[in-house]
Each structure stands twice: as structure tokens, then as C-alpha cells.
Amino acid sequence: MSAETYRILLADDNVDFVNSIGALLTAMGHSVVITHNGPDALAAAARFCPDYAFLDIGLPHMSGYDLARGIRKLACGPITVLIAVTGWGQEKDRQLAFEAGFDHHMVKPVRFEQIEEILGNRSIIKKLRT
Fold it and tell me: Which end of the chain is more exposed for a tag (fewer CB within 10 A), N or C?
């Protein structure tokens, strides 16, 4: 478990998934904001300025692709690590995610260990904060 804590945004319309992941991340000491649609996630990102944002691609009211583009335009957007969390796992889907500004692409079902691995790669955040 990392000694560092982060601001983490979770955006997914699967309430059970985000609540479970959010509870585990909070128990690890991270500050977590949970949203269930694109517009709420974009507003939360503007307020919260997350270090990491785990975003579903198939969100209601705004696609995860559009959400990623919107977050990248925020003041903190360039340093937020964006992770697509989706059931869409074809190579074309990965390419679209990276073109939209995502740093990582994870295919559901996601294991918590995969999330820990991304959070454990702190060099990205440290480099951008210095």
C-alpha cells in the first residue's frame, strides 16, 4: 500500500462498482469523489482537481471520450491521469480513448489490483507536480 494519498475521481453509472472501489480507495486514505454521469463528473473535476480520474466511456449524458476532452481543458486537466474503465476492449476502442486524452485503458471487469498498480506508478504525478 502506498504511503502517498491522492485525489481520485470515479465516474461510472454502475453504482455498485464505483461505491465498492470508492470505499476501498477511501479506506486507503485517498480523497474520493464519485459521480454517475458525464456532466457531474466534469463539474466535480473542475472543483476537485483530481490527481487520477477513472472514467467509464459509456456514461449517461456525455460520453467518457467527451468527458476526457473536457477535463483536459480544465486548469488541472493536463496533469490529471485519466483512465478509461470500460467494457469496450477492441483495439479501435483503445485508440479512441488515447485520442480523447486518456493515459490508460482498462477493460471491465476491473480488479482492484489493477487500480492499485496504476496508483503505484507515482512517477507520473511526481514528475508533473515538480
Answer: C
Question: Domain ranges in the chain?
Answer: 7-129
Q: What is the C-alpha to C-alpha distance for residues 106 and 60, in angstroms, rounded to an integer?
A: 19
- Are the C-beta atoms of 5 and 29 separated by less than 8 Å? yes
Buried-exposed string 103-126: b where 16+ CB fall within 10 A, e elsewhere: bbbbeeebeeeebeebbeeeeebe
Q: Which residues of the chain have pLDDT under 50?
A: 1, 126-130
- pTM for the predicted model, two decimal places: 0.90
Instruction: State how far the Cα of 44 lies from the Cα of 87, in Å rounded to an integer.
Output: 23
Q: How far apart are CA 61 and CA 16, in angstroms?
A: 19
